[in-house]
Amino acid sequence: MRSEKTKKIVNITLCFLMIFFCLGFVSSNKGLYLSAICDALHVKRTVFSLSSSFRFITTAIVNVFFGALVAKFGTKKLILIGFVFLISCVLIESLSGVVWLFYLSQILAGIGFSLTGTGMVGCVVSRWSPENKGTIMGLILCANGAGGALAAQIVTPLIYGGDPFGYRDAYRLVAILLSTLLLFMIFLFREKKVAPGALPAAGKKKRGNGWVGIPFEEAIRKPCFYLALVCIFFTGFCLQGINGIAQAHMKDAGLTPEFVAAMSTISMLALTGSKFFTGILYDKAGLRITATICCSAAIVCMLALAVVSPQRSSLAVVYAIASSIALPLETVMLPLYAADLFGDHSFDKIMGLFISVNTAGYAVGTPFVNLGFDLTGSYQSVLLLPAGIMLAVTLSMQAVISAAHKIRKQTVTMEE
User: Fold this and answer.
1) Quick one: three-class SS letters along 327-377?
2) Please, which of 128, 176, 304, 326 could form a disulfide with 297 given CB 3.0 to 4.6 Å?
3) How far apart are the first and last CA of the chain?
4) Mean pLDDT value of segment 185-204
5) Which CATH superfamily is domain 4-415 in?
6) Percent of the chain at pLDDT above 70?
């Protein structure tokens, strides 16, 4: 029989590998496939980018029910189901010769990512490691960057190796990797069930640990809850809309595919460190400082990308670094927002809603930016608007944090 400590280490390691391959290989480098698939199938980018909207809408719907699904089926069953959907998605894309099959595959991807991504990691960490959530979440989710960096170097030669349908070989390789990890999940992952609203309490009360929280029914009566949802929606709208086309935009701007791949690798490697750093920063400095740094980096990366060119190629490096600091807003920060703002009582439900709203932003942001390309022939004209939106988000989140921390102080005082 394994000890609880051993089970915890094994589960955290498996979650790291899950993020490494599921997000790193399947999601992080979607931009590398964009121009290759559109050229091979002779379709407009707006038409093809709708496939991402199908994924994001599906993810948004599934995450509305995330808390109920975890309560009914547990984490392990859902993770295994998620892997099956992701493998099916990649296999369909390896065979697709028409756009509608990509739409179908991304519906499957939406379900798969809902059950193997940020929300599930937050769920597992809350059960197995309630102390120092930020650091553990950051450690696991930094695998996205490491996986994405490795994937960029592996799939780029396959996609652009001379065969117009080389992207199919890249997808087949990813399917093999996911299938191998699924076997490890089946035999090594262990469930830890807890009663709803009764997540394990953190040990010492210090910055970065959760609190008892308020019931879901009370949370949804608070104005700051809805302002948080608006901020999270527009964060997804801006970041996914921009990062989803960044690689294609740099290539269109005159940068070579090799240089763009190198920027992708730099961004993914930096993301590996930034997610871990974000978790540590949250545990040490709290939510306000961490959110402000990430949101400010988002504004910088959007401005840099808007004016990048072969003569200003250094701005591509600025984009790569700044985006790596901003992207934790879509991953590490969502469970931390839920735990810090509204506590452990309804953590699964609130986190699921936050992820749902965030991915709804993806669904709108991606086609919006690609529509700008089809109308003007360039992404540059639509890159400045998200920077202004993120400035408004940065300021609004300060109001959310102040209001939620006031509720937290009142609740903890009453408990004492």
Assistant:
1) HHHHCCHHHHHHHHHHCCCCHHHHHHHHHHHHHHHHHHHHHHHHHHHHHHC
2) 326
3) 39
4) 70
5) MFS general substrate transporter like domains (1.20.1250.20)
6) 94
